[in-house]
Amino acid sequence: MKFVKILILTDGNNTFLKSDVILEPAGPAVLPIAAKGRPWIENGQDWHLNQRCNRQTAEKLRELVEYLTSLGGVEVSWNQELYVAFILARYNWITVVTFPNQLNIRVKVEAGYFNREEVSKELGISEDKIEVEQLGRRDRITIKIGPDFNLKDQAFVRFIEKARESFLKTV
Questions:
Q1: Which of 31, 36, 128, 163 is deepest in the core (most CB within 10 A)?
Q2: Residues 88-134 pLDDT 10s
Q3: Burial of 108: CB neighbours in 10 Å, binned 0-12, 13-18, 19+
Q4: Looking at the domain assignment, is residue 159 inside a domain?
Q5: What is the pTM of this model?
């Protein structure tokens, strides 16, 4: 790694860049990111399943990971402190914020594709467990579930399928 000073010089209609090396470190070029004290970086899966979730919620998260990664093209990333990310087409499609007794499933879809009342009715859960946030050309739908939520219910499976199609239109 080098620290460089860049000067922009102009001469009439011409622009030039002049660079001077200010500092060349004697140590390694890449500085490692310290993971000590940040267990979600060392082993994010263990962090979320055994530290953030209780036993029942951890089992629900395992079930969700198995389902979403079975869809094809979806990868899981565990190394965030507060959430697990599900990546589709190189973007975070779904993030799951982990809590001891609850998972907040945050799904990105195209703007206006779903509304709170429709999601509530389709999934058979109360509107107070659903939030819809506008994020520009996308919306983020948050569904708050507990250990008793049935991830294999056909309504949830249909919701995820529609959400996936909608998200892919935005990438």
A1: 163
A2: 999 999 999 999 999 999 999 999 999 999 999 999 999 999 999 99
A3: buried
A4: yes
A5: 0.79
